[in-house]
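Researcher: Re-running this chain for the archive, since the previous output was lost when a drive failed. Same request as before.
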Amino acid sequence: MTVADESILQAMDYYRQGQLEKAVRVCDNVLEREPGSAPAMVAKGCILQSRHLWDEAERLHRKALSIRPDLAEAHQNLGLILAEKGRYTEAVVHYRRALKILPDCAETWNDLGVSLRAMGQSQEAALAYRKAVSLQPDFELAWFHLGNALRDMQRWDEAIDAYHNALVRRPHYPSCWNNLGLAYKGLGQSEEAIRAFEKASEMAPDNAEYFNNMGLSLEAAWRSEEAILAYRRAIERKPDFAEAYRNLGDTLKQIGRCEEAIRCYRKALQIRPEYASTWWNLSMALLLSGRLAEGFTLYHYRRHPEVGIFTYPHTLNVPRWDGAKFTGKRLLVYCEQGFGDCIQFLRYLPMVKRRGGTVILEAPTALARLVRNVSDIDEFLCSSQNPPRTAFDLCVSIMDLPAIFHTSLSTIPDIVPYLRAPTEAIEAWRGRFDKDRYHIGIVWAGNPKHGNDANRSCRAEWFAPLGRIDGVQLHSLQKGPAAEPILALAQYTSVIDPANHLTDFADTAAVIACLDLVITVDTAVAHLAGAMDKPVWLLLPFPPDWRWMLDRSDSPWYPAMRLFRQTKRGDWKEVFTAVELEIRRISQMRTGGKKT
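Model: Regenerated C-alpha cells:
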C-alpha cells in the first residue's frame, strides 16, 4: 500500500467520524504531492457531496474519471450528484457504467432504480431494485424502494410484500409503515391501512402527513369522527397543511356539517389559492347547503384538470357564451356528465331562447326522441365521438346555465312539466295497466361508473314488501346489467318488467306516464319523472348528492318529488320502512280505510 493510499484511508476515517475539515486537508495534501491522484479526487468529492457542495464534487469526479474511467465509485458518486440536480438521464448513464465495472454492487442497483423511478420508468426501476435485493437480501432500503415502484404500477399485493420485507429487517421504519398503509389503501383494505398509519405516526408523532393519510383511510372505513381527529392532528403539526384542511372539509361535508366544511375549504384556499380541487369541493358544499348562487359560480372548476371529472370530450373553437344577448347568432348548448344532469338543466332552455337567436341542443342519443321536439330548441344534434359539424357562433354547457342565470333557491325555474312522453308511445302502453291497481315504477341502481354509486344504489329485493301491499303492482324501470337482480325480487313479489321494450328515455317516459308513482334511488329516472311532474319518491343515501341538499323532504327542482333520506350512512332499512308505511297509508285510502 502506498503512502497516498494510506492517506486516503485516513481521510475516509476522518469522514466517517464527522471530522470533515481534517478529511479534506488530508485529501488536499495527497493532491499537492500527486496532482493526478484520481482516488484522492474521488475521496474529496465524496466528502464535498456530504456537505452538499454539488458543483465542486461533480468537477472532482469528472476529473477523476478523465484520468481513471474504470473507477466505479466515481461513476456511482457522479450519478448521485446528477440525480440530486434532477439530471436523472445522465445519472442513469453513470450508474450503468459503474455496474459494468462492478455488476454485483447492490447500492448502485438501488441508486439506478431511484433515478429510473424519478424518470417515470417504474417498471425498469422495479427490476433494478429486485437485482439489489437479490444481491443483498437484507438491504431494507432497496425493499422499500421496490415497494414504491410497485405501488406506482398499482401492483398492490407485490408492493405490500416488498414493504413487509423491509419491515422485517427494520421494524422501526415509519416511512415504510406509511407507504405500506398507502398500498393497503390502494387495495381497498382500509382497516389494514389504518393500522399501518397508526404504526407510522407512533414512531414519528410529529409527521403531519402520516395523520393525514390515516384520516383518509378512516373516512374510507366510515369512521368519520376518528378521521376528523386525525386531520386535526395533522393540522396541529403543520398549520399550513392545505390538503389536510381540504380532507377535513370533505369528511365534515360527508356527515352533513356543511358550514364547518366550508370554513375548512376556505382555510385551505387561503394557504393555497390555486387549489382547484378544493374550489370544486367548496362548490359542492355550498350547493349542498342550499347556497346555490355562490356554489354555481364555482361550478366551472369541474373542468380543471386537477379535478379530473369527465365533462365534454371535444374542444370547440368558438367563444363560450356568457349569457349576453345573441340575436342573429347560433348557440350550441351541449350536454355533459350523466343523463340526469342533462334532464335537470333542460329547464333553462326557454330562458336561453329568450336571449337571442338559434338554439342548437346537442344531447345523448338515448334522449333524442324525448327532447328533440322540446320548444325553445331550434335544432337538435346527437352527441357522438366527433365534434359537432353544424356551424355555430357560441357554445355553452348545459351545466353552466344555472350560474349564467344566477340561480338561487328562490329563482330555480320549476315550471313543470317541461318534458312529455310521445303521445303514441303513451297510448301503446296505457292499455297494459290494470286500472284497479296502484302502479309503482321502481329503480334500485344507478350507473356503476358514478363515483358514489355503491352508496346511492340499493338491493332490488328491498322493494318486495311494497309489492305485497294490497292493490299495489310493481313495475321495474331498471335497465342494463343492474336489472339482473329482478330475479331475486320476483321470488318475493309480483313485478312486471317492461325493460326489454324500453329502447330509450322516450319509452321510459311513456311507461312513467301510465304509472301512479315512481320510487327510485338517485338516478336519471328520478329526474325524468320529476321533469314530467309525475309523483316520484327519491331514496337518498347519506350524504346525498348536492342537488338534494340537506334536511328537507321536498325538492325545489321538482314540485312533485318527495325525498326519503338515510339518517345514517349505509342504512336503507329506515328509508324502506318509511316508504312502506306511506304506501300502506295510500293503499288504505284507496280501499276506503280497510286494513291491508
